[in-house]
Amino acid sequence: MSQKSVVLDAPTPEPRQVTVEALQAHILEKLTYSIGKDPIVARPHDWLAATIFAVRDRIMDRWMESSRETWRTSNKRVYYLSLEFLIGRLMRDAMSNAGLMEPVQQALTNLGVDLGDLIDLEPDAALGNGGLGRLAACFMESMASLKIPAYGYGIRYAHGLFRQEMSEGWQVELPEEWLAHGNPWEFERRESAYEIGFGGHVEGVTDPDGELRQEWHPNEHLLAVAFDTPIVGWRAARVNTLRLWSAQPIDPILLDKFNSGDHIGALEESARAEAITRVLYPADSTPAGQELRLRQEYFFSSASLQDIVRRHLQQYGDLGSLPDKVAIQLNDTHPAISIAEMMRILIDIHGVEWDEAWTLTRGVFGYTNHTLLPEALESWPVALLERLLPRHMQIVYAINAEILTEARKRAKFTDEQIARVSLIDEQNGRRVRMGQLAFVGSHKINGVSALHTELMKQTVFSDLHKLYPDRINNKTNGITPRRWLMQCNPGLTSLLSETIGDAFLDDIRKLEELGAYADDPSFQKRFAAVKLENKTRLAELIRERLGVRVSPEAMFDVQIKRIHEYKRQLLNIIQAVAAYDEIRAHPERDFVPRVKIFAGKAAPSYWNAKLVIKLINDVARVINNDPAVRGLLKVVFLPNYNVSLAEVIVPAADLSEQISTAGMEASGTGNMKFMANGALTIGTMDGANVEMHEEVGDDNIVIFGLTTDEVAAKRAKSEVPRSAIDASPDLQEALNAIASGVFSPDDPNRYRDLVSGLYDTDWFMVARDFDAYVAAQKRVDALWLDQSRWNRMAICNTAHVGFFSSDRTIRQYAEDIWGVQVPTA
Fold it and tell me: Which of 77, 147, 370, 750 is catalytic?
């Protein structure tokens, strides 16, 4: 009997009941026999683990059936490779999607336990940083909801991204201990362990038939061990798998060294292996940091591809059908080494000829580009790749030769064009361009918003687009409405259900029906009441964490995202300083009370971003404690931004700050989350803001600032920004206050260089967009004073969010890139 038939014919246990009584008994059973606690002495974390185990057991039935169904039907599988999966807390997500929320809540109530307390106790998985990782999580949930067989592949970081704390307003990075007490959602798969090699040399070997082939002999080996987490689709339509790799040594301890007295040296191999999966995005400002990042990327790429090829051969027996049964999506350039690794696996391990291997490789891979920033389009020194991955460097050279020959002979490229499309950058110390490698090795390349995709064609990939004009396409990002509306905002979800029915729960586009109620005073009142309740909850969290009291009646003006100069938190806080000056100078005027809320992490080595965090905290300290402000303006920075914190902030936001320098934000997904929850957007025509503007119209969004073309023109002319500053007395006054130490009396020069950069270059157009930003904020104030109009605009935003569902995005990936049929029922 074949292994496939064994898989399909094996018996399975009867599905567990989902009644309140059955769940109550099962939770007690898990508490007693899996946790080992008597209910009398059980602590909240014991009840949490027991509840997760009980919920997980009910998910297992659907998980196994989903796998069997894929084997039975031989449906094409999608493999999503991402260095980040910002999945957040899983218990509420799983219960909600599986229809278990109410029976579990009642079962726990009967046991004297509050479900809400347990949900807040669950650790937030530290597997990502920002939009890239949260997008990957949304995509995984949408693929399961749409019944697409899929695996997510990433790294099981022991600490992940750092835990952010504040010390006198400065960001401090501490290890995130999310795995300190284990992870009840994951399953270790000992059988899915693969050997990963580094270093060594390549040797030419002649086969008996006279063919010369290459053999790579690494001098360093470690194991990649799989840990699987179930990802539950809406209404448990399907349960897919998130497979994360943990690096482990082949020999955990070198006994000869240990016995000779070198007790530390005996653990060297363990330390070297475990460092790979210790931390997300180790600082790459040193050669050692760069090497660790490359090791991470190759480690998870190689393990994932070995797993994919093994599974394919197990089911189909030959590699020729790979493009028909396998679709691999590279989420940004981090897994781009997969192109060379797939070629190595096909040619060196399975004996596939080069031309066929290249056809198969391009047939399975798609590449999503997330940025036009040069520093984010990774490149690695040739010398590093030659030392760490010598066989892959050979393959990169061979691919490059083929591409450049094609460019010269078929497309008649000039020397300058050849240099630009080459996988090897010869101008900056000889580096391998990973974006170029991902592009040439994929059959489709997509941007993540309409504007971003067009800019890709015009800028970073302009010559490759000329060489392969049919490859670039657009797939505007989306968010899962299950987590970012239904779960994080139950009050609004309930109101929507009462008003337009439940159909939107299964098809978010049905929210368009809400537009008919935008002018209804009664509905506006109820809509506003839900928002006030969410704001009251956030105000309490701010008081608990920061000791700052804010009024829920004030406008909550929110910018939560990774701290980066192009995202322009600096523009926001400078405007806060200008508003502070205006309030003190004109106490006779009526001002709209505002709470400016910031959250986000700065990369440990990104000094200017960390300095902006310090500036926000310094400005907050002064403004929040000045009685002359009379509570009209508050500034708060909430530390350790993560998914769980976002789930509290997003439903409470009145104003969504999406103010990146035009042409620099690929898409954004926070803008969509705010939109779904009835916040107005103030933003530039950048990323998905452009499409949001198209969806809601001029009347329901506040747009300001330079356009992409205007930004490019000013940069091309090397225009000195000083003239913009000289023409704006408010900006001058704010910058002088910051630069002179008004907000940093302990160090008057702290922000001098930060401000001087605005006078000298202002690459991110902070100074040149300032007056337009202030004017836009004045428009926001005027809208706020007309609450009926504000509520109408907020309702219209929620009503038009359907386009920005990740379900729509995934359907388009499936149709245009993966060649996967999405079931209609």
Answer: 370
Q: Which of 562, 568, 610, 634 is catalytic?
A: 562
Cα torsion at 399, 400, 406, 411 (round to 10°)?
140
Q: What is the pLDDT of residues 211-253, one digit of tens each?
A: 888 999 999 999 999 999 999 999 999 999 999 999 999 988 7
CA dihedral 198→201→202→207, nearest 10 degrees, is -110
Distances (CA, A) of 718 to 640, 684, 721: 38, 22, 9
Which one is catalytic: 51, 669, 681, 684?
A: 669
- Are 102 and 52 spatial neighbours (Cβ–Cβ below 8 Å)? no
Q: Indicate the residue type of 389.
A: L
Cα–Cα distance, 86 to 136 (Å, whole number): 7
Question: 195 has which bridge partners?
Answer: 223
Which of 594, 673, 768, 792 does the annotation list as catalytic? 673
Q: Convert the pLDDT of each residue in 486-526 to its tens digit.
A: 999 999 999 999 999 999 999 999 999 999 999 999 999 99
CATH architecture of 481-708+729-736+769-804: 3-Layer(aba) Sandwich (3.40)
Note if 673 is an active site residue: yes
824 contact partners, CB below 8 Å, separation of at least 6: none
Burial 422-460 (b: 16+ CB within 10 A, else e): bbbbeeeeebbbbbbbbbbbbbbbbbbbbbbbebbbeeb
Question: The tokens of 100 are what?
Answer: 């278990």
Active site annotation includes 567: yes
For the chain, domain boundaries: 481-708+729-736+769-804
Q: What is the pLDDT of residue 10?
A: 64
Q: Is the pTM of this model over 0.85?
A: yes
Task: List helix spans (H) across 146-286.
Answer: 255-259, 268-276
Per-residue pLDDT reduced to its tens digit, 106-147: 999 999 999 999 999 999 998 988 889 999 999 999 999 999
Question: Which phi and psi angles does 42 have, rounded to 5°?
Answer: -65, 140
Distance between CA 322 and CA 82 in Å, rounded? Answer: 20
Q: How far apart are CA 805 and CA 801, in angstroms?
A: 7
Q: Is 257 among the residues known to form the active site? A: no
Instruction: Choose, from 238, 561, 768, 800, the residue flagged as catalytic.
Output: 561
- Give the three-state DSSP class for 246: strand
What are the pLDDT digits (tens) for 718-737? 777 899 999 999 999 999 99
Active site residue 531: no
Structural tokens at position 466:
């000329």
Residues 353, 358, 359, 360: is their CA dihedral positive or negative? Answer: positive
d(CA 299, CA 320): 25
510 annotated active-site:
no
**Average confidence score pLDDT of the chain:** 95
Report the chain's terminal Cα–Cα distance, integer Å.
33
User: CA dihedral in degrees (703, 708, 710, 714; nearest 10)?
Assistant: 130
Dihedral, 285, 289, 293, 298 alpha carbons, nearest 10: 130
Here the tokens at position 135 are 């997008």
Q: Which two tokens stand for residue 79?
A: 């493999």
Q: How far apart are CA 725 and CA 78, in angstroms?
A: 51
Contact 460, 402 (CB under 8 A): no
Q: Is 362 a catalytic residue?
A: no
CA 119 distance to own-chain centroid: 22
